[in-house]
Amino acid sequence: MKRSILIFIVALAAAICSAAENPLEKQLVTVRVTSQSWSEYRPWQKNKPQSRDFIGIVIPGNRILMLTDDLDDQTLIQVEKGDRPPRFPGRVVHCDYQIGLAVITVDEPGFFDDLQPVDMAERAGGENFYSASWNDGQLNLSAVRWSQVKVYNSGVPHVRYAGVSMVTDLRSGGWGEPVFSENGLIGISNSQTDDRAIVQPVELIRAYLNALELPEYPGFADLGFTYQYKKGPATSAYLGQEGIPTGIRICTVVPGGSVDGILKPGDVLLELDGHTIDPLGDYDHPYYGTLDLMLIASDGHYAGDVIPARILRDRKEMTVQIPLKHMPPSMDLVPQARPGVPPDYLVAGGFIFREFDEPYLWAWGNDWYSKIPYYLRCVYELKKQSQTPEQRRLIVLADVFPDEYNLGYHTMSQTIVQSVNGRPVSSIQEMEEAFNHPRDGFHIIEFLPSYAVSKVILDAETFEEATADIMRKYEIPQRIRVSDRP
Predict the structure, then answer these.
(1) What predicted TM-score, i.e. pTM, was given to this entire model?
(2) Which fold is adopted by the domain 225-323?
């Protein structure tokens, strides 16, 4: 089998080199992206710019398909044909950070004249899989072997997709390399560990491109609940079922999510969108076999669609209708991503406060989860999806810039704010307003219980002057930033 794949790739490479019509080199381009991310510790600053090269896939309409990860914090986009100069300015047409796909274009007249749209397969399948990438003007083809299909949560939640796990001969891949079979493009690699690559399937790509043609882009949906397996007959009997256990038990419902107000904790989900749900939370996908039920919300559906569900509630079966909703990462109490948006922050008396999100934790490095303070890890795990109308965000004390005004608190950091002057705070805006209401001449900042100081008391009369002096001393250009976002 391995020999036949190698023979196929060698033959394909020879055909590409000699073909005069529709060669692969005319379907793929190089996209150079210069980006500049925000500093998570000093949120008024930006990090050093960096440039990286990615592969772009030519699609109909003089457009180029690529991953959104490649465009995060972009300041300049340049596109090359054949991985060779000249470079032409590119611009973003559309980004969906949640499914990780984007479309860009080049406005230079005639740029697309000698390029051709890639051939897309109807679905991810076939034989003789290979991926393509540019290397110094040459197109490299690497053998890829199908492993299995699993349901993955998108890197910018919350959307589920049927990712294809593949074994690849390409080293250091996972940066948007297109994957082909004899049927055409079957997906795009969006991550790789060692020789295992995860490929977003062509079905998701087609759904994204079709959505762009609609009068208004709907986005993709997520169900918005957690569930527990229901394998034991005792649990089924307790919930009012007889015979072999079926369905799963709803544990929590995300406020504002698709099933909020429709399903309740304790409900048993038996069937969703016509698919029977087994006790492990799986259903029979018509093409890929047994997969997690969370895929149903995005497989063939957009936000705004309504799907039926058959449930067991209080020992009675009933059918309910679920309106699928777009669930951006900002719906989480601790957002797992902040695409294209700088961090909100406030400088107050030398204390640096900012919204608590996962990008802040990434500053600890690749192995951030094991490196972050235990206290922050507990907060992250216990509260990350617990947003409510009353508690939209957590505010973390990132640092204290030493000054006589804040003497005694110089070593404080990595604690979560509970209230300011007796007012609960769940955003930088609320914190700013709370500082307008001192109590008996003092600003009182209280923190969630931890091993650190639980209360800070500052003089309110000299607060504004001290803040301005500290900003001059440490060259902080802006006291507050509040982003314009949902």
Answers:
(1) 0.88
(2) Pdz3 Domain (2.30.42)
